[in-house]
Write a structure and sequence with these properties.
mainly alpha, about 110 residues, about 70% helix, 5 helices
């Protein structure tokens, strides 16, 4: 028996708005529900579509921007930071998945 970790609602929320539902499904495959179901989870929590939320986040980041940095450079910096955060969130989920799957495999090996 080879059971896979299934992403939890918390996992989807942790990835919001850094990764789109389509990206999440692509990254985690069978461990994830469909992109449509992910959008429903976000809707259930009154979250706007992730692409819109990310655009709004970047737009609002200009309120704290360093005025000596050009708008283009600030936007690039912000997108870079968002990408780093997305990678960190995905890495954490992959670690949980690996831990879970290794634990299950260990239990199967005991049988």
């Amino acid at each position: 028996m080879n059971r896979k970790y299934k992403l939890s609602e918390r996992d989807y929320i942790d990835l919001y708005p850094y990764a789109s539902p389509k990206e999440i499904k692509s990254e985690f495959g069978e461990r994830s529900v469909s992109s449509r179901q992910i959008r429903r989870i976000y809707h259930k929590h009154n979250l706007e579509p992730s692409t819109k939320a990310l655009e709004n986040f970047i737009d609002k980041s200009f309120a704290v921007a360093d005025l000596s940095v050009s708008e283009a450079d600030w936007a690039a910096y912000t997108r870079e930071q968002v990408e780093l955060r997305k990678q960190k969130q995905k890495q954490g989920i992959w670690k949980r998945a690996e831990f879970y799957e290794n634990k299950l495999q260990g239990l199967e090996d005991l049988k």
